[in-house]
Amino acid sequence: MHSAIYSTKPGGKVMIIGMGTPIQTIPISAAALREVDLVGVFRYANTYPSALKLLSEKNERLPDISKLVTQRFQGLENIPAAFEMAGKVKDDKGNLVLKVMVDTAEAAPQRSSEFKHTL
């Protein structure tokens, strides 16, 4: 919640979805001074098609969602570090931690010539 409030532009909205605990401590003064609206959402399962359509259109009026992933880790061996980072509000350089991504894709293994034509 802290990261969402501080990273939202003045006058923006923060959607509160899937609260982890019944009582949260949030910087309400920061939200009020920056006129950030906090909006609770109870049901959202049926909104995925609309959201995907909006994102696929790449409308110039919508924010650049690529900026939501703020930290990236490569490989399965870095998952513990990624989880540790996800639990922080800011990284070691002072940057906000919004979304941590782990890329688990590995380069495709080279096939030997004897297997190229087999099914």
Automatic annotation (TrEMBL):
| Cofactor(s), names only, from the UniProt record | Zn(2+)
Gene Ontology biological process terms from the UniProt entry: sorbitol catabolic process
Write out the GO MF terms.
L-iditol 2-dehydrogenase (NAD+) activity; metal ion binding
Keywords recorded for this protein, A-Z = Metal-binding, Oxidoreductase, Zinc
**Which superkingdom?**
Eukaryota
Q: Which family does it belong to?
A: Belongs to the zinc-containing alcohol dehydrogenase family.
What is the official name of this protein in its record? Alcohol dehydrogenase-like C-terminal domain-containing protein
